[in-house]
Write a structure and sequence with these properties.
Layout (H helix, E strand, L loop, with lengths): L3 H23 L7 E2 L1 E7 L5 E2 L4 E8 L11 E8 L22 E9 L6 E6 L7 E10 L4 E6 L10 E4 L6 H29 L1
Parallel strand pairs: 1-9, 3-10
Antiparallel strand pairs: 2-4, 4-7, 5-6, 5-8, 8-9, 8-10
Length: 201
């Protein structure tokens, strides 16, 4: 007869085995991906783009090479930090292991892969995007994992970058109100001192 302690030990060993297998399955690296996608980005305006106002037009598709896109099921396009905006920011650090990589944190679009044609998306920069320099990367997935990628920059992430300025949260009306209240407080202070001086006289 199997005791409860033996069942507990067996369950624990089985759980550890499952966790180990799961962890091993999930450890996928960027170097394993094929560079099979082309990605082009056209900003809506030249110069610095403003979050919540400006947009970018992203076009992606399969590279016409010797490979095949038969296994591609889904595409995810993301906004990624350029190296200059990653310096001394561990929360944006590039990691070779895909699950740990923090380069691309903002989703632009995710949709089923359309074989044998280029797709595009015009994306208005969302208001939560921080100030920084960026590029765009697209990942192609099979039924589960990333299998290929493409980006609008070179391997060193030094070309075709664009800069985004985050919203400050300040508006002209707020600045005007702040100025009026500041002036009112100064006037009130002078009136207070004048009345105090009259009382003493």
């Amino acid at each position: 007869m199997v005791s409860s302690s033996q069942i507990l030990v067996f369950s624990f060993v089985l759980l550890c085995f499952v966790c180990t297998c799961y962890g091993a399955e999930k450890k996928r690296h960027f170097a394993e991906l094929k560079n099979d996608l082309t990605v082009d980005v056209v900003p809506s305006t030249s110069g610095v783009l403003k979050a919540g106002v400006d947009s970018i037009a992203v076009t992606w598709g399969f590279k016409q090479n010797d490979g095949t896109d038969a296994e591609f099921k889904k595409v995810k396009v993301q906004l990624c930090f350029a190296p200059i905006s990653q310096k001394q920011r561990a929360w944006r650090k590039t990691e070779e292991e895909l699950l740990k990589d923090k380069t691309c944190q903002f989703l632009i679009v995710e949709r089923p892969y359309a074989a044998a044609k280029k797709e595009n998306e015009t994306w208005t920069i969302t208001r939560n995007i921080p100030s920084g320099t960026y590029f765009v990367r697209a990942y192609a997935f099979d039924s589960v994992h990333e299998v290929a990628y493409g980006q609008n920059t070179d391997d060193k992430h030094a070309t075709n970058l664009f800069t985004i300025q985050a919203i400050t949260g300040r508006h002209t009306s707020i600045d005007i109100c702040a100025g009026v209240f500041s002036a009112f407080s100064v006037i009130t202070l002078f009136v207070f001192f004048y009345l105090e001086k009259r009382k003493k006289a």
